[in-house]
Amino acid sequence: MERLNLGQGSGGRETQELVRRLLAPFGDGTPEWEDCALLPGGWGVTTDGFTVSPLTFPGGDLGKLCVCGSANDLAVRGVRPEFLTLSVIAEEGLPEEVLVRHMGSAARTCALGGLALVAGDTKVVPRGQADGLFLVTTALGRTVRPEAPLGMGNLRPGDALILTGPPGLHGATIAACRYEMDVPGLQSDCALLWPLLEPLNGLSGLRCMRDCTRGGVAAVLCEWAEGTGTGLLVEENSLPADPGVLSVADLLGFDPLALACEGTALIGVAPEEADRALELLRRHPLGARAARVGTVETEHPGWVGLHTPIGGVRLLDMPTGELLPRIC
Amino acid sequence: MERLNLGQGSGGRETQELVRRLLAPFGDGTPEWEDCALLPGGWGVTTDGFTVSPLTFPGGDLGKLCVCGSANDLAVRGVRPEFLTLSVIAEEGLPEEVLVRHMGSAARTCALGGLALVAGDTKVVPRGQADGLFLVTTALGRTVRPEAPLGMGNLRPGDALILTGPPGLHGATIAACRYEMDVPGLQSDCALLWPLLEPLNGLSGLRCMRDCTRGGVAAVLCEWAEGTGTGLLVEENSLPADPGVLSVADLLGFDPLALACEGTALIGVAPEEADRALELLRRHPLGARAARVGTVETEHPGWVGLHTPIGGVRLLDMPTGELLPRIC
User: Which PANTHER family does this chain map to (chains A, B) (predicted)?
Assistant: First the structure.
């Protein structure tokens, strides 16, 4: 009898395979593999469960994370985050002050992003039947581009790939907390992406965007390559790098590309608009380190190649196993 | 330091007070106290976390329950359930077959109710950090009555109160499982309410509806009385009763009115349309035992009175404490 393992919650290959099996009973009516679903009337909707441990970390906490995480899944499809539902699963014995603190953090993030909380639910389960606090959010909003929905299916050979910031900030921050490493300056990139990404919707050559959460930039690259049958070539030298992430990754043997982000997106855009996209991104503090990192090509359909500084190409595979459980 | 207790997850008084404190940071932008929120464009949205134990019970299972529970919160506001999001929080070590079985059950319930699954999320947490499986659903749909939204604020003195079935079937069923009682014929009322309730939207005097989940019929009555400042008088003799519920309630000392339902609604309707409403309800198998159970009055504003067969009136208070954790 197969039992669930932590790798199946990692956001990588095993998660993908598990989700395929879970969706099988739903037959034809299964969601497409994008971050948010598009409904009639221009609405977008997305849902996410957040189980991060520790509940508070440099750069954010569970309350902030659950709002950003869901709102960002809308933002990357050109949907303005407007409404939020919030479901609480809390463990008996949790100090009420902790729960109230995370609600305060969620409320401030909603206010900042112009989101209204419209529905909620609260469950308390007996001690030992949940670990502290889980929050599940659903975000809703309306698309700003009803005529031209974003999605990986729009990618064309020659398109440029842009990363809005260094990979792995959230994952490295959680890892540093978990392993009690003191890494000066390292903090999660947990942030609302809509203010950064909204202006890109004015570009006619914008193809698709994805925030790189569980499984990191590597998982998004692999999903795009496999999902579209195109090849993606990434220049390792061009990837924005954060020294804190590099030191954590180095010490723990992680690939920064497989570490989660919570405020960093990968963007596919027509080559002639790549410079304009970078310019728009760099106007916002969150996009200060945005960089063109790769290209859509035709040579290795379905594969992601990483062009290394010494001139080789290594194939980047979908992350497998679980680097770090409960990252988000 | 206040710590969370199980009573705060009961759906009664303590839940209400906790939720008020949790919503405080959201300031003016807090949801109204109805089962589903109404958004621009005639959309309704609702969210719920499901933590029921055991995962499978007579009449249903977690997969069926999570679809019915969220869809019903739309149905009682005159919103046709159309779309569902589903967030999975599973414990490492759970047999994958269990998860797949509940997905199958959810998928069948969606197919039956015409709901499409549009978004999902899957988290696996380390062994011991969650108990088996929690599912969180958000349901979405469009109202069939954009001009006349349902809500307790519509209640007027003289209105009739109708209950679509006997109180407490779900709660009594879970209690019987938990205490290993063998009660022939007893099963949860877990069901999709839209087919039963949709026809009522043709009545111009339909005021409000609520499915009586955690906290049971008693919690809904008290919320309506307190939320509107009207008095509600219920005739104990007229309440539909289920022998299985009565025997469980009797043995364990529970009030059936405080036991959860998962397919039974309380309805407020203008007195001149009460008979028509009953006729419409009784056409559907789920409404075979529907009954007019009470009246909105003005004598005891904010209170619920239960008119007993021996001629007295006892005040029905919002349930407090926790009869039974993890009922839904």
Answer: CARBAMOYL DEHYDRATASE HYPE, HYDROGENASE ISOENZYMES FORMATION PROTEIN HYPE
